Amino acid sequence: MVTAAPYEPKKKQIVDHLAPTAVDKTFNSKATAGEEGMISVRDMDFNYGAKRALHHIQMEIPSKQVTAFIGPSGCGKSTLLRCFNRINDRIQGAHIASGQVIIKGKNIYDKDVDTTSLRRQVGMVFQKYNPFPKSIYENVVYGLRISGVKKKADLNDACEYALKSAALWDECKDRLKQNAFGLSGGQMQRLCIARAIAVKPDILLMDEPCSALDPIATLKVEELILQLKEQFTVVIVTHNMQQARRVADLTAFMYLGELIEFADTLTIFSNPQQLKTEEYIRGQFS
Amino acid sequence: MNDNPNGISEDMQALLKKPGLLGVRVDRQSLIKHFFNGCAGITIITLFLIMWSLLRESTGFLPTYRWELSVYRQAGLEYADFIEKPLSEHLALHSKLNRAFNAELNTISRESKLRRDAAFLIKQQIEEKTVLQREPLQEALDAGNTPPEKITALRKTLTEATAAALGSEPLPKLFNESEKKSLTADLLGLQPDVTDMPPFIKSLMDKFIEQDKAGKEKYAAFISALDAFEEASEPITELHDGMKEQVLEVKKAATQQHMAEDAKFKLLEAARAAKTAEKREGFEKDAAQTDINPIDYKTNIDSLITKLPEYESLIPAYKDAVSKAMEGIPQKADTHEARELIDQVRKSFPKHLAHVDESVDHMKAWQWDKPIPLFRALTAFLFGGDWITNSSWQDFYGVIPLFTGSLLIAITALLIALPFSVAAAIYTNQFASPREQEIIKPFIEFIQAIPSVVLGFIGISVLGDLIKETSNIPWLQWIPGFPVQERLNMFNAGLLLALMAIPTMFSLAEDALQNVPRAFSEASEALGATKLQTVFRVIFPASISGVFAAMLLGLGRIIGETMVVLLVAGNRIAIPDFSDGIGAVFQPAHTLTGIIAQELGEVSRGSAHWQALFMVGILLFFISLLINFLSRKVVKRFQLPKI
Amino acid sequence: MHASAKSTSPDNPFAKRKSHLEFYELLTKSILRGATYLILFVTASIFIHIFIKGAPVIFQSKAPFINTKFLTELPETLHILQDKQGKIYETDPKGSDIIKKELGSNLRQEKTMSYSGGGILGPIVGTVLLVVGCMIVALFLGISSAIYLSEYAKPGRFIEMVRLAILNLSGVPSVVFGLFGLGMFVLTAPVITSVPHERSLLVIPLGFSNLSFQGWDTSVLSGAFTLAFVILPVIITASEECLRAVPQGFRETSLALGATRWQTIWRSVLPFAMPGILTSSILGIARAAGETAPIMFTAALAFKDKLPWQGQSGFNGVFTESVQALPYHIYTLAARIPKNEYSERAQYGSVFVFLVLVMSLAMASVLLRKKLRAKYQW
Q1: How does pLDDT run across B157-183, given as a tens digit for each residue?
Q2: Residue A97: which CATH number?
Q3: Which of B526, B533, B643 sits opposite A124 (nearest CB)?
Q4: CA C174 to CA B562: how far, in whole Å?
């Protein structure tokens, strides 16, 4: 399947020192086209008050893959991502105008959907790392505590699991009780990822997770994302096309609130079907 | 404003700026600059003058107070007070026993006493209401020559008026129907020329007298023990009174001498400043004529000390008498109240006896000529337990009673205001709809504009009675301190001050919540936390420093408030009696701010009292600085990391 | 949101979990809301109580609908006379004599209530004088200092210290300011006089007269200055904040166009800061109007039967006479007079007028702020 030669060595290089399975499970978008994905968006319109932000979005996001949203600023990629756990509900006047977002066979905008229950199953990592002003440990187990886990052993296990999954365990296992703000930026972002996966969600949404990080920290987070897709369905918004190319199995290009093109990453970058996509990827606008 | 600045700026810039700067060319711009410089200067300098003026008016306090304390010692007042202490203890014990006795007596005669008093009360009320009809009848009867038919007519009007008054006045529930009837008959028969008590009321009175007598017979042993207890101290009291008279004479002389010295000093001072030799001579002559008789403290003290053996010899008899009297106090009282009081007395009795012995030791160790160091005057001010002014015996300026009053009121107010303002801040900031916010915020800010004297007025006219009535509700009697004795008390003041502090604390706490970054709540909600979990696990903990600062600044506001406490706190200068625990907040008290406002208008400038009040002002000044300092520290210490 | 066939399927992965959480959520929210509304309720009931008891004193059902007597007469002792028929006459001392003569032996009893008769013109005039004086002093000094601190002063240790001092002073109890005013303005402030008082701290001969530091006595001037210093820290802080809120770009643009420092301040900074400064100042002045402790020893008298300009010194009395003031009048009425139906009228009437006065100042500031916020935004 891998055809886009110029990019392959680099990708391979990253993937190589990661878990070997990552290479094997290269995704073929056509294989799932038409089938039900993990997240399916059905002809969705989304409004901020009277202003329409997303038009007729239609997409199937497959399970246990990394899907990237790219596009110029203000194209609606973050808005779309934030629809998946309904965190947009926080904003006054934001609402879905028509269509559905179906996760695990259920339209999450139905009235009988409990947002807290939804958000426990759809985790999110934000653009700017935002640990709580608490200890590292308390940050990681926060999600468990609020869902009522009280047993010390359970919490400790979850903490270790999450920090290991986020490749942070070795760096901070001796300072779990210290304030999270003592960590470096990259570490804080990985802590936020650990915090999100400690509750074992099915889906992990990442809103430009590396935009506030330096290149080395970015690389580490990217490695982490590739590891995470073994367990989670990852959806990532990124401003950086290289990043999408490096981590994503599928890429969606959005422009002015519309989904222009959605295909597997290699197709998008090597053989885009739409003129707009091609222009964007060539860097003719941003 | 565009014109050249006026002359003030010239003066002020000299105060503010280094002198060299004045020489710089003075054009329009720099003049304007210097003008503003000057204005800020005036403000700043005057702000610093506050401290200066407080200090100036109070600087003499420590020496003056030291002088007063040393006269207290040298004239022997201190010596006499050694005996005073066990005597006042004796008095307190006796009054407790007396209360216990009355509680016992009440078990027998309470009911009949209540019935008698209720009948008296209704009689009085009826008489008051019919006074307009009674007086003409009285006059007619007094005149002696009024025709009988007119008197009959007047009598009839009076009876009618009484009936009308009875109709509007319900009879007390203490009486049953037939008793009510006889009471009505009694009242209807009231005529100014009948001086005997009407039969039913008379029977009530007799009943009480009879029962009272029965009670006194039953508790005859108690009464005699009580009397014996009281009489035991008589010889000592007599001795003490004699000593008091003697030392007061000396103190009076010492004060006069001090005043004379002062006058002489002033005359000499004037002589020095006098411009003409003639005037100077006049002053000097006057000064020379001011005679100063040195006080012979020694002789007085010697004669005072001779009283000690007498006192010592009286002690064994006293101890014997009170111990014996204590044995006569019933072991098992019938009422709970009496039992408790007697237990209290029993407990403190051995201590009292020890204190009596100690007083002798103190008197033996006492030295009349031991000098009082200056810092002793300061500690007597800061840690003194008495604030007594205009006393015929000795004035004391100790701020502890005032300070405890202020503190207790502040704590009460804070305990009430803190939960309310924080709850309101959380609700408004996190849960309220925008429209609700628009109503709540200005409304609470508005409370700030209510003048404190208006709140104090509400406390006097409404809240006091409300608290007192509430405290009489039977099912609330488990609350310590209920039923409340005084309408005006610390709790009343605390409630009003809480209302005053709420806007300050609310606004600051709300700001603190507002300043918590959105990212925190977003992260929490993305993890599936409910609104409430987010608020109490993330947002509120993150804003805790702001809430602390709000609390401290609210405390500052409460401690510094004057009018509410002056009007409402009850103004009793005493350290609250904590024997009934938290109930102490229902006692009246005086405060640091209240004492200044109340007493400053009545004292003469420069007296020790005046200076003491300014010292209280300085104390308040420092307390407010401390609170400000702490709140800044708290904010800095818990500052949120920037992300 | 139309539900599709799929989403109505019975197994909902995001169903609400059954737990007590929801109940606690509701409970806590109700408690918080209850606490908030209790505060509002208590405040509202205080206002309503004062309105119900005080409004009948001021308003009447007949034209001119306002009890002008209460607002235009000086306070005096109320005499209550009762004749033998039970008829009650309420009157002033003069009226009492006349009625007594008329009634002759028909007089049954006479009661007097201090301060409860007449009106409250004296206190109103005194309060207005004090507030106006305080306003002039506080605004002048406060705004000038703020301009200096924000526009001219170079940041440094000294300025930091000054700011700290101002901040600390805003927490100092008002009764301490009262003591300060007593020590400073009543007993020490300089006056020009040919006959210095003997208590004068310092006398500087000026040739034609003497500058004597002997104080202004208890007078409107002392009271106004004391009140001004009570609110000065608030006004300085608020004004400085307003000046700082004016974007730096305004100043830079103006200076770049060749304007002098002062022109910049006068034309490009002050006009934008002024509305904010004024609104916060009005709030400060409302606070000053409500203060009692600072004027107790510096300006106010419990009773005075003349308006300030009716004394010996004529119009100058507006500055040099001591006056009655509403808050102190209320204090006197509340603390020194037994409460009964006669004194209650004077009490609630004064409280009502005072509250309306102070609240309308506060209200004006709040409304003004709301209006200006919409108008001046950058």
Answers
A1: 888 888 888 887 777 777 888 888 888
A2: 3.40.50.300
A3: B526
A4: 8
The structure tokens 């009280």 sit at: A150
- Tell me: the pLDDT tens digits for A37-89? 688 888 899 988 888 889 989 888 888 889 999 988 888 888 999 888 888 88
Residues 6+ apart with CB under 8 A from A115: A85, A86, A89
Rounded (5°) CA angle C293-C299-C305? 120
In a domain, A264, yes or no: yes
- Cα separation of B472 and B347, whole Å? 30
Domain membership of residue A27 (yes or no) is no
Provide the number of structural domains found in chain B: 3
pLDDT digits (tens, 9 = 90+) for C287-343: 888 889 999 888 888 777 777 777 777 777 777 888 888 999 999 888 887 777 778
For residues B53 and B130, membership in a common domain is answered with no
Task: Answer yes or no: pTM beyond 0.80.
Answer: yes
Specify whether B24 is located in the same domain as B132: no
Indicate whether B242 belongs to any domain: no
Does residue B466 sit in the same domain as residue B613?
yes
CA distances from B91 to B97, B222, B386, B579 (A): 10, 17, 19, 18
Let me know: does A109 contact A100? Beta carbons within 8 Å: yes
Q: How far apart are CA C113 and CA C98, in angstroms?
A: 18
Percent of chain B with pLDDT over 90: 15
Label the pairing between strands A203-207 and A122-125. parallel
Distance CA B616, CA B620 (A): 6
- CA distances (Å), B420 to each of A192, B38, B417, C272, C292, in order? 35, 45, 5, 37, 27
Domain span at B630: 411-637
First-to-last C-alpha distance (Å) of chain A: 29
Whether B50 sits inside 8 A of C169 (CB atoms) is yes
Shared domain for B131 and B30, answered yes or no, is no
Which amino acid is it at B239?
L
The count of CB pairs under 8 A between chains A and B is 73
Q: Is B250 within 8 Å of B70 (Cβ atoms)?
A: no
Q: Are residues B46 and B176 in the same domain?
A: no
Token pair of B311, please?
A: 């006192």
Identity (one letter) of the amino acid at B31? L
Specify if B244 maps to a domain.
Answer: no
Q: What is the ipTM of this complex?
A: 0.88
Contacts 24+ apart (CB under 8 A), B327-331: B327/B225, B328/B221, B328/B222, B328/B224, B328/B225, B328/B228, B329/B97, B329/B222, B329/B225, B329/B226, B330/B104, B330/B219, B330/B221, B330/B222
Whole-number Å distance between alpha carbons of A57 and A74:
16
By C-alpha distance, the chain C residue nearest B32 is: C262
- The reply to whether residue A133 touches residue B533, judged by beta carbons under 8 angstroms, is no
Determine, yes or no, domain membership for A149. yes
Measured between beta carbons, the chain B residues lying within 8 angstroms of A118 are 528
Question: Given CB atoms, is A203 within the 8 Å cutoff of chain B?
Answer: no
**How many residues appear in chain C?**
378
Rounded CA separation A117/B545 (Å): 32
When CB atoms are compared, the residue of A123, A130, A142 closest to B519 is A130
Residue A150 belongs to domain spanning: 37-281
Distance CA B16, CA C159 (A): 12
Domain closes at, from B203, B228, B253: B228
Cβ pair B643:A87 closer than 8 A: no
- How many CB atoms within 10 Å of residue B106? 17
In a domain? residue A78: yes
- Give the pairing type, strands A122-125 and A39-48: unpaired
Half-sphere exposure of B89 (CA within 13 A, CB side): 19
- What is the rounded distance in angstroms from the CA atom of residue B422 to the CA atom of residue A213? 37
User: Cβ separation of B526 and A134 shorter than 8 Å?
Assistant: no
> Which of A119, A128, A134 is closest, CB to CB, to B527?
A119
